[in-house]
Specification:
By secondary structure, the protein is of the alpha+beta class. The chain is 55% helix and 20% strand. It has helices at residues 3-19, 22-33, 61-70; strands at residues 40-46, 52-58. Strand 1 and strand 2 form a beta hairpin. The longest helix has 17 residues, at 3-19.
């Protein structure tokens, strides 16, 4: 990755965290606690028109193996 792209990402992250200040702490809490087998992860997206999509998973050992590979 070139230096210009890195600065663009840094600038965009700064703007994102300024607009959504609770997100960095939330992500840090998850990172500090880690992922464990049996943990539930839920995701919901709600549009301004009221449409909503939800999904979730229960973390399995194979998921943890994948995360270890990605690290």
């Amino acid at each position: 990755m070139d230096i210009g792209a890195m600065f663009k990402i840094k600038d965009a992250w700064g703007k994102f965290t300024a607009n959504h200040p609770r997100i960095p702490g939330f992500l840090d809490s998850i990172k500090d606690k880690g992922f464990v087998e049996g943990q539930e992860i839920a995701i919901a997206v709600r549009y301004p028109d009221g449409t909503e999509f939800k999904t979730g998973i229960k973390v399995q050992k194979t998921d943890l193996d994948l995360l270890d590979l990605v690290k």
